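Is NAI placement plausible here? Inputs below.
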Amino acid sequence: MSWSSCPIKWISSQEIRAVLQWDVLVPAITEALQAVSTAGAVVQPVRTKLEDKENAGTLMVMPGLVRPCNALATKILCKYPGNAAKGLPTHTSLVLLNDTQTGVPLALLEGDSITELRTAAASAAATLAVRKFNKPTGSPCIVAVLGAGTQGAAHARVMNHILKPQQVRIWSRNGCQSLVSKLSSEGVPAVSCSSVQDAVNGACVINTCTLASKPVLKLPWVMKGAHINSVGAANGNDQEMESDLVRSAQIYADTAEAVMKEAGDLILSGSKLEGEIGEVIKGTLKPTKGMTTIFKSVGMAAEDAVAARLVYDTLYPSKH
Ligand SMILES: NC(=O)C1=CN([C@@H]2O[C@H](COP(=O)(O)OP(=O)(O)OC[C@H]3O[C@@H](n4cnc5c(N)ncnc54)[C@H](O)[C@@H]3O)[C@@H](O)[C@H]2O)C=CC1
Ligand SMILES: O=C([O-])C1=[NH+]CCC1
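Reply from A.M.:
I modeled the complex. Tokens:
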């Protein structure tokens, strides 16, 4: 007998995007983040990284099991920043979904769309959780996005969806007019900024979505009490945020174990974590009113597994 008598499904980016609408994905990723901070609910070893120094690339293997969501999957992701100059995505990936009872492979999913959407959804979940305890009052909500690549675009869209801000200000070191035009045509109130300082001035939510290895965001530019989703710099030597800024804030990890190992922003600034964002979602950890908060996300297999399972169950409802 062979498991391949029930052949594995291939699930395309188009199919994934049709399922993973923000109203469905943000609650699912919120549940995944909460599970990560619940004893026994998630098995998720810190990812294995293969460094290809010759091509300045990294291959990562990310397995994860999320019991409450019946999700078992592995993502294999390559990060090759030099691809940008070749007109290729800097991050490419596949996700293999397995049955949780038997381990039998169920589906292979295009991973780039999952990575794009689940990362932005995690930042959205974190933003909503923190704002329950610590929401700046008075001025209208302005969102800033630093970086205009895949994550910058997805963060602009999801922040617009959940916060309905007055403005979404975007900065990218090479300009961002084409992204701003695209977002405007979708109804996002996007504007292009020529400096980080202009983009973040007065912003209540800041999203750092760059491939920077040196800090782009500095303490004096950030409004006290703002919330920062820091998505880049998942490499012990890289930083997106100045150390003084990180030390001044309350910091919540997607997963403490991986952030303490991988997040240069934490490691190089010598900062300590308040805890995991799942604890804020559960309400067992409460950000202090008026403090600047940081959601430090390095990315987790649990998010990929839950997103993949959601897509599979939606497309093949009778197959589990
Ligand atoms: N936390 C998570 O779960 C995830 C994190 N990431 C990280 O998020 C970041 C953005 O990823 P993508 O949008 O997919 O990449 P991308 O290649 O699509 O976009 C990168 C952006 O960063 C800018 N950039 C490149 N070098 C820079 C520098 N030295 N200083 C300032 N800006 C610079 C580019 O101009 C571009 O706007 C990367 O660091 C990536 O590794 C990506 C996926 C998941
Ligand atoms: O979790 C993820 O997919 C990634 N984290 C950093 C680069 C990609």
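Short version: The pocket of 3,4-dihydro-2H-pyrrolium-5-carboxylate (ligand 2) is lined by residues 77, 79, 91, 115, 234, 298-299 (CB under 6 Å).
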